[in-house]
Amino acid sequence: MPAIAYQTPLRTDILRALDIPEPWSFGIADRVRFGELDALAHVNNTAYLSWLENFRINYFKDYGIADYSTRIPRIVLRQIGVDFLTEMRLGAEYVITGRTTSLRTTSFRMDYGIWSEGVLRATGWAVLVNLNDDSSKAPLPETARNSLISRDNPEVL
Amino acid sequence: MPAIAYQTPLRTDILRALDIPEPWSFGIADRVRFGELDALAHVNNTAYLSWLENFRINYFKDYGIADYSTRIPRIVLRQIGVDFLTEMRLGAEYVITGRTTSLRTTSFRMDYGIWSEGVLRATGWAVLVNLNDDSSKAPLPETARNSLISRDNPEVL
Amino acid sequence: MPAIAYQTPLRTDILRALDIPEPWSFGIADRVRFGELDALAHVNNTAYLSWLENFRINYFKDYGIADYSTRIPRIVLRQIGVDFLTEMRLGAEYVITGRTTSLRTTSFRMDYGIWSEGVLRATGWAVLVNLNDDSSKAPLPETARNSLISRDNPEVL
Amino acid sequence: MPAIAYQTPLRTDILRALDIPEPWSFGIADRVRFGELDALAHVNNTAYLSWLENFRINYFKDYGIADYSTRIPRIVLRQIGVDFLTEMRLGAEYVITGRTTSLRTTSFRMDYGIWSEGVLRATGWAVLVNLNDDSSKAPLPETARNSLISRDNPEVL
């Protein structure tokens, strides 16, 4: 496996070199920490959700959806699901891949893969909703919408 | 709302007094902690998974499935999903309810509700698998199976 | 050990019944969760800091220092120390005790004990500072100061 | 600031280029995650302890003290202290530095610095004890001892 940069957008060329197939085109790598293990010495299920959350922030920045520098956007998690396929252990290097697979006016669905040593360790999905400060639903800004459509080619619903 | 004991099995009578409807018959209460909030001052999505994990341990003990006193059982999480319905804030008292809704030889599905101030704040579900120490699937012990069937009346698949 | 309420202020009478000695006069009880264990099946060091943080919020409310209902106060942690005396395991019931032992114009020092099954499992201390919204130091309000002095008899520096 | 690799040992040359002074000679870099923030949008105090824990594992590997690949060693945290000097926010890149400053037969003391944008954000220290599987104290292996002495020049007590 090539050396990869952590917490840095990984593009198609690097993902393919890591045996991560199409259609994944955006990834973020990191390594399992001691504090993410549970008493059975496997990665605890809550850690996967932290990884996906952190992935989304990198993704939102790279796609120009939110930059988190002036304010934390109100793109909130409405649903999440994870399939745990193979246990992960301390020190394992992994890549999270994610893409937007469907898009509505105020919400969108993302799908995720968690890869380590060329093996898909978990899959996940989320529904995210854009909110106004008063928690009412807000249409996704046009620039965000265009970015998601042009880069991830989601089903537009 | 009546005063309720935290981290203690709540039965049907208390659940109904808290306006938690049938078919829920087992609950565990607690209160939102500061460390469970995120930068938007809402409960972070990972906290819900910790709550469900802690709920399962109470449930496994009460149902006689595993007691965690001599060893940590290998009933592992295979899938999880959560629908976040209403945001929760610091200090909110909540009750997690859960029940087994379907049962196979080596696995079972649980459904969950998270309630606060009489409102359903989130729903969830999980698929759990019983493993041998070598990570191969193991049939659920007969006593565990009988307990789940008699108390929760799951669909037996 | 008597049954004790979790996340509820415990006064001198209950603390003494639990063999927790003078001068401790305020405690908060809870139980070790699975998610607080590390890969050695002991409570992870970060969990103790979460417990102390949660203790402080209960203490601040009970002492009338901050109620966290309208805004999160800017009483921030400036220093913390913990001595880990005896390992703790899953399901252990524990009581955190804490008191203010010295007081300055804008800051105060608290000392803590963590007790389980009549044994002192850890001790800790913290220095807390009251800040304005612009992060400059602010004098503790007179009511907070009086409450700390009358209840905990700290050294006034 | 030069681009730096995360979760990878940083040596003297890189540390100096980052304006981290002598005597620090070993560092690990990373970036603040959303899940590490609290409701005031600052890094929560528990996150610093996770960072120090993760630092120690990298340090133990690099110094040949423990590799965590076959078993998790019983070098346990006996005491910890942190001084929080300047608040840290989302996305901040930081470097943890650490060294062993004193050494006894079965225990040693480490000191830490947490640096971001050329500013010391926090300092910390820990006392670590080597244990046998029965939790009795064990002398540090000679190779570990020699490595700590030759690389960090601690006070030998």
Keywords:
six-stranded mixed β-sheet, 3 helices, 6 strands, homotetramer, Thiol Ester Dehydrase, Chain A, alpha+beta, globular, 22% helix
Write a structural description.
Four copies of one chain form a homotetramer. Chain A has three helices and six strands, in the order H-E-H-E-E-E-E-H-E. The first copy, chain A, has helices spanning 12-17, 45-62, 142-152, and strands at residues 27-31, 75-84, 93-103, 107-116, 119-130, 155-156. In chain A, strands 1, 2, 3, 4, 5 and 6 form a six-stranded mixed sheet that branches. Chains in contact: A-B, A-C, A-D, B-C, B-D, C-D. Chain A binds chain C through residues 34-35, 37-39, 41, 44, 46, 90, and chain C through 34-35, 37-39, 41, 44, 46, 90.
